Amino acid sequence: MQALVDAARRKESVLVAGLDPIPARFPEELRSIPEAEATLQFCLGILEAVEPHVAAVKLQAAFFERLGPAGMGIYADLIQAATDLGLPAIADVKRGDIGPVAAAYAAAHLGVYGATCVTVNPFMGEDAVLPFLEEARRRNGGVFVLVATSNPSSREVQETTDPPIFEIVACLVARLGRPAGDYPDAGAVVGVTRPEIGNRVRELLPEALFLSPGYGAQGGEASGVRPLLDRRGGGVLVNSSRNILYAYERSIASYKDAAREAARNARDALRLVSTNP
Cβ of 164: how many Cβ atoms within 10 Å? Predict the structure, then answer.
């Protein structure tokens, strides 16, 4: 976790750029070459463009897994490329298994592929989180646990019980996290699309680092970040994926230039509501 915090302070940015490459949305010049090659070129171009304005990158593993072995090679190459640029890489894998299976997932993404942090689904309880934390602790990394996600139908599961499941999971995160620099090594995924829920999660997790998706394409705004902030006015990293990746669709600029501008605008908007972690 500390690598994320240090990068955010160094860059004076709480923005995380999500890499969710969808070949059908690539610019025309990349659609005539094989998908795997196009994916690598597109993502490397995005990394180059957004590097000055973001604290980290988040790779959605599914978009690379769908390309088979070549895709996982690209996934590894992009994590290395991000690292070379000084950008910590969050592996957005949302794994949720237990025991040796969870340990294997953790060893793969934190070890073999070299991600700084991973996202974890806690549906199976503590057993689904601890193997990831144990691997992260060996590598000075961290785990972001799904607590209150940004998708609309999440309310049907996360908010309808008594107490709400998001509160139960928040308490799990509080119990499992250990001090690891400025923040515990167990953080929480809390969407900016649900600021009222985010405020309650912050009450339950006053010391945790939040990874907050939903900014931009899912309708989340900078104002939705404010209720998630900790008592110091920080503690939140905000992810934006499609709003940056495909900004060129709303522009006459090249995809790199459009992504650079979208990242700069998002960084500046977020600076108005948040200090660095």
Answer: 17
